[in-house]
Design brief:
Length: 343
């Protein structure tokens, strides 16, 4: 009888309480991890180009599990970004004094007037169409190099004022502005403007026979020599490890002729991932692999183009032994070092 009573108490009172405590603890741990995974947000400087973004793009907030802040730089066109901006020969930059309560940028110089205006830009979500707020930096002279620098400075200050842990760009060619943006940030946040900055890291992760692929929207405008010319220009005082031996371990795959991607990207049309397009994506990489690639597979792949992210898992599945990195990953890496760990 006594044993029966104890069993009844266990079933009706003790066990439910224990189950409730375990469930509650699980929810608490999940909430704590979610809070830690959010952590500080990050920022992206957007070129003067709008398109329907996809999950996996740098310019799409769904690509991240932390808050994202975007600043659109008026006049900072794709052509301008490709040409770069001289780091040492441009006029001295006026300091950004701050922002008023309407987010208007205030320059110390009266000739550097600019303002932040808000636009609603539609982007496709899995459950319908949502909107994201894009902050646009404008000024009277929209394309002069000195004006672009002032607007970039305003954009950097705008992002830093929102506590971002890292800043990137939404075009692979933003790497041309790496030193400019890093100088404007004045050591207040890490700057990684392009996934190309990950290229020197990959050979250090493998033995000397390893080979790698850089994927770009158009190999006619960016070949392997161009990649390392860009990276070599990031050298401060001879500290760059880049040399001809490192360059020889990379090849570039161009996607300008991939049906469903090349023309669409060029014309600013939406790019929809389909099984057929995913296969074409993998085929474009396979096509550049020569006999120096052991087992006909790369050891690493970098997506230079910021609109390739949605195909990352397809390439990872096709080459399971390869490290596949995209433009979202470069920002995640830069930000991660400033996020509190859960342990």
């Amino acid at each position: 009888m006594q044993a029966h009573l104890v069993l009844v108490l266990l079933v009706t009172i003790v066990i439910p309480i224990l189950v409730a405590l375990i469930i509650g603890l699980g929810f608490w741990i999940s909430a704590l991890r979610a809070a830690n995974s959010q952590g500080p947000g990050a920022g992206a400087l957007r070129i003067d180009y709008f398109y329907q973004t996809a999950d996996g793009d740098t310019a799409d907030p769904r690509s991240y599990d932390f808050p994202m802040h975007y600043v659109h730089i008026d006049g900072w066109s794709f052509t301008f970004v490709q040409q770069g901006l001289s780091y040492n020969q441009e006029p001295q930059l006026d300091e950004v004094a701050g922002f008023d309560d309407q987010n208007n940028v205030i320059y110390a110089s009266p000739n550097g007037e600019a303002e932040v205006v808000r636009e609603q830009v539609s982007y496709q979500k899995t459950n319908g169409v949502g909107t994201m707020t894009v902050n646009m930096i404008k000024s009277k002279s929209s394309t002069a190099p000195a004006s672009i620098r002032k607007k970039l400075a305003a954009g950097v200050e705008f992002l830093l004022a929102r506590g971002v842990a890292a800043i990137t760009g939404d075009c692979g060619f933003c790497v041309y502005f790496q030193q400019v943006i890093a100088d404007l940030a004045k050591r207040r946040a890490p700057i990684m403007m392009s996934a190309l900055m990950l290229a020197p890291m990959l050979p250090l992760m493998y033995n000397p026979t390893s080979r790698f692929v850089i994927c770009t929207a158009n190999s006619a405008t960016l070949d392997v020599n161009g990649v390392f010319e860009i990276l070599s220009e990031l050298d401060y005082g001879g500290l760059s490890p880049l040399d001809s031996l490192l360059e020889a371990r990379f090849v570039v795959a161009g996607f300008q002729n991939v049906p469903g991607f090349g023309v669409e990207l060029k014309d600013g049309l939406p790019i929809y991932r389909t099984p057929a397009l995913a296969r074409e994506f993998v085929n474009a990489i396979t096509a550049v692999l020569d006999k120096s690639f052991v087992d006909n597979a790369p050891n690493g792949v970098i997506f230079e183009c910021t609109e390739m992210g949605q195909f990352t898992n397809d390439v990872r599945r096709a080459f399971p032994n390869a490290v596949v990195l995209n433009s979202v990953n470069v920002l995640e890496i830069a930000r991660l070092g400033k996020v509190e760990s859960p342990y």
